[in-house]
Hints:
The complex is a heterotrimer of chains A (114), B (629) and C (233).
Chain A: H1 3-11, H2 20-42, H3 44-47, H4 52-71, H5 79-103, H6 105-111
Chain B: H1 13-20, H2 23-28, H3 33-62, H4 72-107, H5 115-133, H6 162-190, H7 203-235, H8 250-282, H9 289-302, H10 318-346, H11 355-377, H12 380-386, H13 390-420, H14 426-452, H15 469-499, H16 554-557, H17 564-567, H18 577-590, H19 599-621
Chain C: H1 32-58, E1 72-73, E2 80-81, H2 87-112, H3 120-126, H4 129-156, H5 165-197, H6 205-231
Helix pairs in contact in C: 1-5, 1-6, 2-4, 2-6, 4-5, 5-6
Amino acid sequence: MADSAHAHAHDEAHDHHPTAKTYLWTALFLTIVTIVEVSAYYYKPWEESAIYVPSMIFLSAVKFAVVAAVYMHLKYDHKLFRNLFVGPLVIAVLTLIGLLFLFGKAAISLATPA
Amino acid sequence: MATTVAAPSYAPPRTQAAEAKGGIWSWIATTDHKKIGVLYLFTALFFFIFGGLEAAVIRAQLAAPNQSLVSAELYNQLFTMHGTTMVFLAIMPLSAAFFNFLIPLQIGARDVAFPRLNAFSYWVYLLGGLFITAPIFFGLAPDGGWFGYAPLTTRQYSPGLNIDFWVLGLQILGISSLAAGFNFITTIINLRAPGMTLMRMPMFTWMSFVVQFLVVLAFPVITVALVFLQFDRFFGTNFYTLSAGADPLLWQHLFWIFGHPEVYILILPAFGLVSEVIPTFSRKPLFGYSVMVYSGILIGFLGFGVWAHHMFSVGMGPIADTVFGLTTMLIAIPTGVKIFNWMSTMWGGALKFTTPMLFSIGLVSMFTIGGLSGVSHSSPPADLQQTDTYYVVAHFHYVLFGGSIMGIFAGIYHYFPKMFGRLMDERLGKWHFWINLVGMNLTFGPMHFSGLLGMPRRIYTYDANQGWDLFNMMSSVGTAIIIVATLIFVWNFFASLRRGPVAGRDPWGASTLEWSIPSPPPAYNFAELPTVTSRYPLWDLTEGDLTKEHHEAPEARDRRIPTAKELGIPMPADTAKPALAALGLTVMVGGMFLKHVNMTVFLAVVGTGAVVFVGALYAWLTSPLEEAH
Amino acid sequence: MTATAMPAGTGAAHGGDAHAHGHHYTTTGLDNRKIAIWALIGSECMLFASLISTYLIYKGKSLVGPYPHEAWTDPATGTVYNPILNIPVTSFSTFVLLMSSLAMVLAHNAVVNKGKPRTGFWQKLEGNSVFWLVATALLGTVFLMCQAYEFTSFVHEGLKLGTNLFSSSFYTLTGFHGAHVAAGVLWLWTLAFIDLKRGLGPADGISVDICALYWHFVDVVWIAIFVLLYLIK
């Protein structure tokens, strides 16, 4: 009766537990990305270009993913936690995108009668 | 292959009841999911009746044209509170009664993951429910509709305290639901007995699992919408202030992003209950178990993508209308699939038309009718005529009264013996069902017609000779019939509590784990955690009569139930800290309305509530769950 | 809600340990509280998504200033208002919060590895859980102080709560985030205090872990806010 429970316990995936060194390198990486982001803000040619917004979103997505994977252990933990987080995250992002479309300039021009 | 669970030695309900009695304190301090479930059931039935009375007054007013039983202002309060009460104080908590009582039993657990948090959820519900209901006795009940559209509900257009009570009350109630959501998600993931894989869980637990995710994902959105309204009303922000450039649709979008998943929160538990009853009284496993699971999950997921079908008339433009029309039509598919699966379960089965079975069949048929009108709403051009008319009222009452409530009644009749150790009266149950069916259809059927003939919603009276008079009279007569049916139910319920025939552990010959333990179950549920090897642990599906231990030997009934201490099972201690924390929270949040009355009193009350809340919370978090062992 | 450094053994810290009575038995071998905190984090994604959506919906729609990235002249009084956001200060507070996540993860690391032999200054520092918990709490407090400074200076410069759509959505979004940070800081100070009093060890790993997960999530939300509100005009 307790067998499956024990099996589960030992299954808990800990590929390789991250060390303090991993954390420090991660912190360095995150700092560098942040410096890049802030610099981009002040570097007019980039800031005024069409690529600016996508690049900023991309960079923050990278930071988001790294914090989630390393600091929050998602990379090293049981898959359940990844699923518990990613599902709601997807719904949240889709809802946000849906709302932006509904309230955006395109939506207004479409709703206005010709 | 099925495994049957041997019946342990247990004592009859009488002895148990005497042992269990601990007076009011044991109810206030309980952390037992079964007792909490019973608390939810009684409280929710009370609010169901209260909401029904509000409807009765509405129908009395509308029975004939140009009546003045109530003023327009009071009428607004009545339909607002009827909706708010039924959605938040009746149907959701009735489902919660079953989540609480049933889920741990169905998955073979001793209790939920966080028993004190569970108690907290109940007390917040009770106090929040009282907070939002009390104002009607002062003529100050919320009056902006259960959906509270801003800017109508901003201070500019609703200067009184009514909407303050609504905003604050819903915030309080939201916390109750959210806490329960986290609790049950953890419980279902982590406390299933050995061998109970996800695809072996009973359907009620599965549907409840989906519902908990809907709760924790949808309630934050209405929390934000309410926060915006609260901040506008109390702190002068501009979220819904048109003169500051606010968008008049912001509230509607945020509300319905919550509101649509909410209706699936209202129906899925009933679907789950019916999926327990129909196989039991067809003596057949549920047809298409996997499909039922996946369709439930799909409904949950798709439910987040259809919200603006409540807004087809606001002018979102052709693309938005089309997209939401399509997703709405799409969601009818997994829902419809379930109807066919229930019917297929019954097909070729040895049908027994007990009261729970009748109510389940009632759900299948009435929900289909409501679903058909719902599908007609999914087309934006059609909906343009239907929206804001009684056609919509007909739709949602068929799915909520004919669907959710009937499913819940099925659950009540089915699980009453398990909860209380006695059977409800079958004859009275059948009277209840048939009279209710007639009354329900007489009340809501005609609304399809009056609606299509143009009768708007939320009007307190109407002129004669527009073609609506007969239909309204029929609806009001139907309401009286529903009242009769409900009285029969209430009588049956309370009489059976006292004098119903004693039930054994499995009066129905059912298949799932909850029927393997005594009625009512001992505090610890299972003396030994069961090992599960099939979806229908109590049925042998390979040969012969389905249920091996159908009839309990009389001697088995008189054996003594060992206590938790004797079995060495550590139990959570009784504690009133969750109830106290709930009180502090309600006072802290609810007391905010005083800001519009008197600043000093406001500060004193909210401050006291905060102190009590934080103090109780701190005491709760730093004390161990279980008694020393 | 359910988090605390409870006496060892009251959670399923030794996951999967099933006695005959199913005492602390779990299906997955994982701790209940850890599952619950991830469910909470998922739920909070929707909360912040709604707040952020509203901010973005109202971006550029305020009828009067002050504005986040543009100057504005009040037609009534002729007063000129500079763009109100202070990128250098916020970049600093963002960095502070980022570093607090590092301190947090080192704190958890120290607690979980308590009792291991350590030689030399750096190893001892690495294993000093009190130091790292206090560091996290302090950095979080500094962040809050930056927020407080920001709010008060904005109000001083003419951006009150109800001034315009920008003020309403900005203060509410960042205010909610700040409230979450504040709750986290309280939690951290409590853990630090318990560590000082009786010491936190491997058995308390889960307790610190759930605090850490909450704290990192709060950091991650700020990553999104910083970019969407401050760095994108």
